[in-house]
Amino acid sequence: MRSDDMKPITLDLFADAEVQQPATSQQIGEQSFVLRGFALPWLDRLLPALETVLRAAPFRQMITPGGFTMSVGLSSCGALGWTTDRSGYRYTPTDPQTARPWPAMPVVFLELAQAAALAAGFSDFMPDSCLINRYVPGAKMSLHQDKDERDYSAPIVSVSLGLPAVFLFGGHQRSEKSQRVPLFHGDIVVWSGVDRLRYHGILPLKDGQHSQLGAQRINFTFRTAG
């Protein structure tokens, strides 16, 4: 999927009242938190940086090792980007589609990820990878663990923008019951420690229209992969 499939993001939209909402914290696990509205004050820097990344590495729908096409569009930035194809899941320093290095992680991305991690109680977070997902109505992410990273001591920081979604936050076995956590524009989920390998996913995105991003949800997931 091409980056120009996104609704154009223009600075005149940043006057939206959502940006003025205060951030609050909701604990969803022993070491897991939803930071409500945390990303909203960063939007005037975050969204233009996102457009720059997507010009260099447009969204594409990747193939899983089982041969299925993912419903979610993916891109990456940072020293390592996450990819999947018939040979497996992995992090790579170059984009397999272009053979060029992934776009550098914008400074505002890094600052936001570190600020959110610190707000959740995790200091010294230094992500080297940001996976960017695009959900359109009907797209979903099945329950999975983030376990392709070499070191599980660093948190996962996941930023939600655009349409609301239902985040599934389960246990350490796929069969365990999952919490259903609503996520809204500007929310950030942070999990680490004893919760680091919990299964999680996203229910199929419902139809809707967001005032800034249109009929889509954009998700950044920051990790220390290498």
TrEMBL record:
Name assigned to this protein: Alpha-ketoglutarate-dependent dioxygenase AlkB
Note on cofactor: Binds 1 Fe(2+) ion per subunit.
EC number(s) reported in the record: 1.14.11.33
GO molecular function ontology, one term from the record: ferrous iron binding
Short name of any one Pfam family annotated for the protein: 2OG-FeII_Oxy_2
Cofactor(s) the protein needs: Fe(2+)
Residues that bind substrate: 82, 89-91, 148, 174
Enzyme class: oxidoreductase
Domain Fe2OG dioxygenase: 126-226
A single Gene Ontology CC term: cytoplasm
Binding site for 2-oxoglutarate: 133-135, 217-223
PROSITE patterns on file: FE2OG_OXY (PS51471)
